[in-house]
Amino acid sequence: MSYTTSASTKGGREGRAILDNGGLALAMAFPKELGGNGEGHNPEQLFALGYSACYGQAIVALGRKHGIDGNTAKITCQVTLSKDDVSFALAVELKVHVPGADPAAVKALVEDAHQICPYSRATRNNVPVTLTVV
Predict the structure, then answer these.
(1) How many CA atoms lie within 13 A of 61 on its CB side?
(2) 78 and 26 in one domain?
(3) CATH number of the domain encompassing residue 13
(4) Could you tell me whether strands 16-19 and 25-27 are parallel, antiparallel, or unpaired per DSSP bridges?
(5) Left (φ > 0), alpha (ψ -120 to 50) or beta: where does 62 sit?
(6) Range list of H helices, the chain
(7) Neighbours of 114 (CB within 10 A)
(8) Segments forming the whole domain that contains residue 84
(9) Is there a single domain that holds both residue 128 and residue 99?
(10) Residue 84 predicted with pLDDT over 80
(11) What separation in angstroms does the CA of 73 have from each of 51, 57, 95?
(12) What percent of the chain is predicted at pLDDT more than 90?
């Protein structure tokens, strides 16, 4: 089983991005914090959306194994773009809140989900990812 999608962008961070099937199109803009006007979206926001949804699905898929209803979990993905010695670098914090669940069980689930989530696998050993149970 596999799935492929594609998107195109013209104008980089100050342009327009569109899914090649036409299902979503977004104006792109530098965030105000980086000197832009902030009147659009940026790659870090899109990465945060995708990662939180993908990681959330890993939580749903593994929840029963840990005695947790993964559908009740709220996943917040915080993406930070910062300047390093070479260029720019990303860092991620995944914050997971499961109302009423045992924190130790949630911690085990969070770590287990981090092993199977495709975004976690893609960033492993390249982007620092912090897992936080809230």
Answers:
(1) 13
(2) no
(3) 2.20.25.10
(4) antiparallel
(5) alpha
(6) 43-63, 103-116, 118-123
(7) 19
(8) 43-133
(9) yes
(10) no
(11) 14, 10, 10
(12) 96
Residue corresponding to tokens 């009147």: 39
12 plus 76 within the same structural domain: no
- Torsion from C-alpha of 5, 9, 91, 117, nearest 10 degrees: 0
34 and 82 inside one domain:
no
Q: What is the pLDDT of residues 92-117, one digit of tens each?
A: 999 999 999 999 999 999 999 999 99
pLDDT tier for residue 59 given thresholds of 50, 70 and 90: very high
Do both 70 and 10 map to the same domain? Answer: no
Contacts with 52 (C-beta within 8 Å, 6 or more apart), sequence order: 75, 76, 77, 94
If one counts the domains in the chain, the total is 2
In sequence order, the β-bridge partners of residue 79 are: 92
Report the C-alpha gap between 6 and 24 in whole angstroms. 11
124's CB contacts (< 8 A; 6+ apart) are none
Average pLDDT over the chain reads 96
